[in-house]
Amino acid sequence: MGDLEKAARKAQEFRQREREILDAALALFLEQGEDRVTVEMIADRVGIGKGTIYKHFETKNEIYLLLMIRYEEDLAELFRQISGSEDKETIAREYFRFRISDPRRYQLFDRLENKVIKDQAVPELVEKLHAIRSDNLASLVRTMEARMDDGTLENVPAPYHIAAAWALAHGAVALMESPYYQKFIDDKADFLDFLVSIGIRMGNKGQRGK
Amino acid sequence: MGDLEKAARKAQEFRQREREILDAALALFLEQGEDRVTVEMIADRVGIGKGTIYKHFETKNEIYLLLMIRYEEDLAELFRQISGSEDKETIAREYFRFRISDPRRYQLFDRLENKVIKDQAVPELVEKLHAIRSDNLASLVRTMEARMDDGTLENVPAPYHIAAAWALAHGAVALMESPYYQKFIDDKADFLDFLVSIGIRMGNKGQRGK
Amino acid sequence: MGDLEKAARKAQEFRQREREILDAALALFLEQGEDRVTVEMIADRVGIGKGTIYKHFETKNEIYLLLMIRYEEDLAELFRQISGSEDKETIAREYFRFRISDPRRYQLFDRLENKVIKDQAVPELVEKLHAIRSDNLASLVRTMEARMDDGTLENVPAPYHIAAAWALAHGAVALMESPYYQKFIDDKADFLDFLVSIGIRMGNKGQRGK
Amino acid sequence: MGDLEKAARKAQEFRQREREILDAALALFLEQGEDRVTVEMIADRVGIGKGTIYKHFETKNEIYLLLMIRYEEDLAELFRQISGSEDKETIAREYFRFRISDPRRYQLFDRLENKVIKDQAVPELVEKLHAIRSDNLASLVRTMEARMDDGTLENVPAPYHIAAAWALAHGAVALMESPYYQKFIDDKADFLDFLVSIGIRMGNKGQRGK
DNA sequence: TATGAATGAGGCTTCATTCAT
DNA sequence: AATGAATGAAGCCTCATTCAT
């Protein structure tokens, strides 16, 4: 095996380990909450030493951000896959569904974002995160505008529709995760159905001021 | 002045101090975030010693919970005031408005609830909180059912309507507070208007599956 | 005992503890070198908990600086005591002697100053330190100028004389402390005598350009 | 090319690399201070791997010592070059000048020597360093004795003169490097002139007790 | 020989809570 | 009841050194 090959494999393994660390971190954060998870716990779960984590990431905050970026990139990937769809409603629905699909993960990132921004940590990565997100939102804006041209959607600035959907999704997530409100809803699936139907038609033309 | 009177006044002052502590704590939590606020900072703001705080509350978690209960009681008070209203829409609207009116406070309590439940802290108080909330929700349920009887609202279980409104409000709050999404919306007031209109008619009859 | 008295005594004890911590820190720094001394070691020597140290000082760097300031204040005290002396040579001699008298302490502070400045730590205290020192130097400058008026000293800017004396003292200290150079000098006392005589007459008139 | 030649070249390259490492280390130590420089930084500057450094040197302390030895050997080289000089004052002057010429380097080594000796690190190298230094001092002693025979210098043990000069040089270096004292002296060049003149005539006959 | 990923001891600092006065 | 000094567990991060490839 040539030296180049070897180097490539090493780099590969390094990336792999990075992924392992992030996976372990995410799993622990979800299980126990970020505040209860120490860097050492992450290392233990991966089966490596504490110091090794710091070969891959500068700070714990960086881990937070990288996870958030990964999430946002998954979303971007989703958009890429469905952007060809003729049905303009699909994108909005998929967006909605993606957000709701893993509520704990979503909520974790919401908390993390607030924390990380309050700490003014790793500003470059925050910027990167926001750049990706802006791209994603631009996709949505285009879709929304198409639907407004169709005459389907009420003609307010596109961000309004997106933000409203975002808010409903965000709230739905919090609802499904809230230990208290969970018991308030008996048939989760049916309710979600109801909620999605609201989300989709929300802002449809001719409904305002009714 | 008799001993009884004296004792009564003392008890009075003790209550007063308790309120001061909670007020100071809330103000600080809102200004800086719970994690950045130490018990000592709260004591300093009230102008008392740190130890004194522990004469009133067993732990910091108890402070969290008492604040949350106060919030929920404020909501109960609101319901009491408007429950006589003939216009059944009013209650829903006020509920919505109350939640949105002080988003940071609301978000704070949302965070605190998750934290406190994860810690399984002061379970008696958690129970008390949930009891009050259940009462509040029962009020809403009654209203919703009345509107469904009217034929105004789509006939799904009442909690669905409430939960949907809750979710939208929750999301709206997060949206308005998010440093990122804030810049995404140009005219905040106009957007909120849009959002409230959605919130009110959301779930109105005849819209589903449209 | 009145409350005021009690409070005063408490404050007194607090100060006393502060002094104990600084004394212990200084002793340890001298014995083992600053880098080998941990905050915990200092606490152990005083017989208190690690956290207590941080009730008195914000950081380890602050301890460094407070010790340095104490040293500089001792010097100021010395100047106050001898400033009345008619013999203008006395001040210079005492200054010299003070610096040489405890070489390890002096060297410690020299090291600390470099470290603390490189770290840009606790700038307010650095400023305070320098302010005191500037006062002390001003004392010396006045003395030197008097001697130049006498015609005793060569008429160059006063700081030159001071700086030269400072340099010789600084070097003498390093010499006496150097494990290597120590064995190079047999009769320490006699040599110091020689050095002091140089220090005193150094810069006397009529010697330059000989 | 024969195997022997190859081996020789390899050895040559190995030596060369060693020199590069030491050069890089010295440069970094001077720029940032020993404590802020990690082995990895040295490796990076040379453009090699961190592990390679440990093929050349057992510990970081060894690097320190090797640098100090190099410095002392430079001094020995200087003595060799000027030892033939008829003017006996020259050696003393050159010695003085050499020390003052690169104050940061000098101070670095002073710090390192204290550190390394406190750590009792690599005693063989410490011994070697001191052996070279002893040779250098012996050179100086011979010169001084010649000048005392001349009647130029006061007749005290030769090491006295050397030590005094060493001390003054050492102090001058510290002075010029001290961020604080620097601003105390306006005209650096003029002051150094003054200092050197003192250094040269320091201990000249007939001045003591004047 | 060269590499650089991995290690883990060790340092500094924070803060909720306790307790003697 | 009020105080605030004292505590120490716990967390984050650094870096010289090792070792498998």
UniProtKB/TrEMBL annotation, chains A, B, C, D:
What Pfam families would the database entry show?
A: TetR_N
Domain HTH tetR-type, chain residue ranges per copy: 21-65
Instruction: Give the top-rank taxon of the lineage listed in the UniProt record for this protein.
Output: Bacteria
Which UniProt keywords are present, listed alphabetically? DNA-binding
Under the heading SUPFAM superfamilies, the entry gives: Homeodomain-like, Tetracyclin repressor-like, C-terminal domain
PANTHER family xref list: HTH-TYPE TRANSCRIPTIONAL REGULATOR RUTR, TRANSCRIPTIONAL REGULATORY PROTEIN
Task: Specify the protein name.
Answer: TetR/AcrR family transcriptional regulator
Which species is this record about? Alcanivorax quisquiliarum
Q: What is the lineage of its organism?
A: Bacteria, Pseudomonadati, Pseudomonadota, Gammaproteobacteria, Oceanospirillales
